[in-house]
Amino acid sequence: MGAVTSTVAARFAFFPPNPPSYGVPAPAPAADADGDGEGVGAGEEKDKDSGVVELTGVPRRGNVEARRLRTKRGTEVVAMYVRQTGARLTLLYSHGNAADLGQMFELFVELSAHLNVNLMGYDYSGYGQSSGKPSEQNTYADIEAVYRCLVETYGASEENIILYGQSVGSGPTLDLASCLPRLRAVVLHSPILSGLRVMYPVKHTYWFDIYKNIDKISLVRCPVLVIHGTADEVVDCSHGRALWELAKVKYEPLWIKGGNHCNLELYPEYIKHLKKFVGAIERSPPPPNDESPESSAPPDNTQTDPDGTEDSRKSSDCREKTRQSTDRREKPRGSTDRRDKSRKSVDHDHHPDKPRASADQPDRPRKSIDRFGAVMKSVRYIDCFRVTTSSGS
After folding, report:
1. 53-106: per-residue pLDDT in tens?
2. Which pLDDT does position 284 carry in this prediction?
3. Which of 95, 114, 261, 273 is catalytic?
4. Catalytic residue status for 316
5. Which of 244, 247, 275, 349 has its CA 20 to 30 A from that of 187?
6. Is residue 348 annotated as part of the catalytic site, yes or no?
7. PANTHER family, from UniProt (predicted)?
8. What's the predicted TM-score (pTM) here?
9. Which string of b and e fits 325-336 if b means at least 16 CB within 10 Å?
10. Considering the domain boundaries, does residue 29 fall inside one?
């Protein structure tokens, strides 16, 4: 069974850039003054423990540090940490497909500055200069190792971390989020319901499917922001809408009119809405220590208008109780668009297919937003959640 799942994953999801867009120089061998090898071993072990490496092919920045991190599955992934002075929140970013840290470098630096957050990005196993091969299970181990580094090395805490998953990165993001009861928030950028559902409109969850986000989203207890382009021809916008419907604690979504799978960062409303979200999360109190779902969600006195959050409808609880029966849940999913049209949500009765009024009319965007868009236009970044027809990739 595992072999079949791996084959499905390889064909549906993983296309690391070849060659990688950046490098990591091999460490220079240490001198052994005694000639017995012990000194070399000790030095190498110390360097290995520190994990700090240098990235080549990207600009040097004083607030960026890169590390090699060993995962529980034996691979070593490369991660980069962008430190922002005075930041109280940390964003853990799982990038999309056909991208690596070299291509994401400038985006990560700009996001950290514009959102005033520390940011940790990483390459999945088999991507960039990370060792191993890409697989669903490896990506779960990858993000777990990066999260552990954030906590143990950089002093981040669960309640001050926002998980950000783009496209295929929504898989490891929701897998980790479903296990963290005190997580601060989640951002899903052009997310997928599951790997198989990207290809076919299946109504059942099969054992060989990968990234079963449709089954995990209801386990996430923190606010969830969904961003998706209405003209996405790779992962249909219905994936984002369905995941937002299934979220327990919803934040006002952003449906970018005309946006496709790979260019949402170019729209002014992207960074404006993301800044609004981060600001709302920063102002809201962190989740309490009590791990019950009710007390882990933001308190009822959180205002909906400025923050845009709302607790999910009571039917969400029923949906979670019956989540093992995929058939029963899949039937109402077909009416997602109708629910969006009729329900009174945080959009304040705006039509779900239309972006927010503030996003529709960015008459005079701030200079920082203009600069962000200009920088993003200069970044060569491609996210191709492609499907292969041949046996190889």
Report:
1. 999 999 999 999 999 999 999 999 999 999 999 999 999 999 999 999 999 999
2. 93
3. 261
4. no
5. 349
6. no
7. ALPHA/BETA HYDROLASE DOMAIN-CONTAINING PROTEIN, ALPHA_BETA-HYDROLASES SUPERFAMILY PROTEIN
8. 0.74
9. ebeebbeebeeb
10. no
